[in-house]
Specification:
Number of helices: 10
Structural class: alpha/beta
Helix content: 25-40%
Number of strands: 15
Shape: elongated
Oligomer: single chain
Mean pLDDT: 93
Largest sheet: 9 strands, parallel
Radius of gyration: 21 Å
Strand content: 15-25%
Distance between the termini: 44 Å
Order of helices and strands: EHEEHEEEEHEHEEHEHEHEHHEHE
């Protein structure tokens, strides 16, 4: 349920109304825009009589939110959420590129890639320390040692880091990570979602391979419900019947999210197709449909990569792709966030 406040109502009257609603056993999501203030009522609103709220002369109107996701719903929060992480703004009007290897393999590798993606214009360094793999015999990542190498790359280049968490048991290890990535396979790991909700860390959540849009937004709702409002969504392709590519990039996800939610959404073109030759065209599509950023896999020697080499750009290819991205983002009037 949302309660829209009349214009020019003094803050103390709004505070009294909030206190009254909280006395009914509900929590409030407060959203103040340039011309409208909205109170989002979270909890069991079925027993609330709308006429009781309308009787307050500070209330313009009351509307019930029928979708199961409430806090991440645009009806609750009409203005786009823009997060600020490590001095970079993520959301409407800005554009970020997270770039780096699928997995951290050595100190030499991560430092070389970090320096290259920074010079090319990336705003964050992404790299996997803990790797979810389909086969138990595949490389699972360097784990805690990989996190240490990412921190060293951050120290030497100044690039903030994005890396994936696999278990709530590892949260302490991620204390200095700038953005925690929640992978597609863990999108509905509800225990982990609850812990991330309590963490307050910025969370980049990837859409599950077969998740509907409602399931995607409900997973984000779990994090919001825990008190963490620092959520970034990421479309990384969904599983279809097409065998020529790894996954199908669902370009409709971006306008759908922007219609139904206030959260920023990025696109991962590397996982979407699983082919490096499609990263650049899918990146162009992402910019055209209004995505707030890209996550691109980059490796200094893709042919020898321990994980996902087929979809990774080499350093030269990434630099070339970034030049194209810069021109298109500038043409659209958005601000590219970089480390330079």
């Amino acid at each position: 349920m949302i309660v829209v406040i009349k214009q020019n109502v003094p803050k103390e009257r709004i505070d009294r109304l909030i206190h009254r609603i909280e006395g009914m056993g509900l929590s409030i999501h407060y959203s103040e825009g340039s011309s409208t203030t909205i109170l989002g009522l979270l909890g069991d609103t079925s027993r609330i009589d709308e006429r009781t709220l309308l009787a307050d002369d500070s209330v313009e109107y009351v509307r019930r939110v029928t979708e199961p996701y409430k806090a991440v719903n645009r009806k609750m929060h009409p203005n786009d959420t823009v997060l600020e992480v490590a001095g970079r703004k993520i959301g409407e009007g800005y554009f970020n590129v997270f770039a780096g290897p699928c997995s951290v393999e050595s100190e030499e590798q991560i430092l070389m890639v970090a320096e290259a993606v920074k010079n090319a214009g990336a705003s964050f360094l992404r790299g996997g320390a803990f790797k979810p793999r389909t086969s138990p015999y595949s490389f699972q990542g360097m784990e805690a040692e990989g996190l240490k190498l990412l921190m060293e790359a951050k120290r030497q280049t100044g690039l903030p880091i994005v890396t994936e968490i696999m278990s709530e048991k590892h949260l302490d290890l991620f204390a200095d990570v700038d953005i925690i990535q929640l992978g597609a396979r863990n999108m509905q790991n509800f225990m982990l979602l609850k812990e991330l909700g309590r963490s307050k860390k910025p969370i980049l959540m990837k859409r599950g391979l077969s998740a509907t849009m409602e399931e995607f937004l409900m997973a984000a709702e779990y994090i919001y419900a825990g008190g963490n409002e620092n959520v970034i969504l990421c479309e990384r392709g969904i599983r279809t019947f097409e065998p020529m590519i790894r996954n199908n990039l669902d370009v409709s996800a971006v306008p759908l999210v922007k219609t139904h939610s206030h959260l920023p959404i990025m696109i991962d073109p590397s996982h979407a197709a699983g082919r490096r030759d499609m990263v650049a065209p899918l990146s162009r599509a992402a910019i055209a449909i209004g995505a707030d950023g890209l996550m691109i896999e980059v490796h200094n020697n893709p042919k020898c990569a321990l994980c996902d080499g087929a979809q990774s750009l080499d350093l030269y290819q990434f630099t070339s792709t970034m030049e194209d991205i810069k021109k298109r983002v500038a043409f659209e009037g958005r601000e590219l966030q970089t480390a330079l």
